[in-house]
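I'd like us to work through together how a protein chain folds, taking it slowly. To get us started, please write out a protein record for me. Label the sequence line and the structure token line clearly, so we can match residues to local backbone shapes. Once you have written the record down, we can walk along the chain together.
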Amino acid sequence: PKTPKPQSSEIEIIMSVTTCSFSGLPLREPVVSRKSGHVFERSVILRQVQETGQCPLTGADLAEEDLMDL
């Protein structure tokens, strides 16, 4: 039997779990924002938080303490 091809929405879900929501880079040290639920690569989001104090996707205030390891 043939294996069905994944739908585009399934591909988006898989991609969102394996890549940083901001940079699109593969996740090596993933963290999730407790405020938005977005998943980021640790080094990418920490740099953003230190520079702006905001989530790059929502613009909401974001601190290092708001990030949780996955």
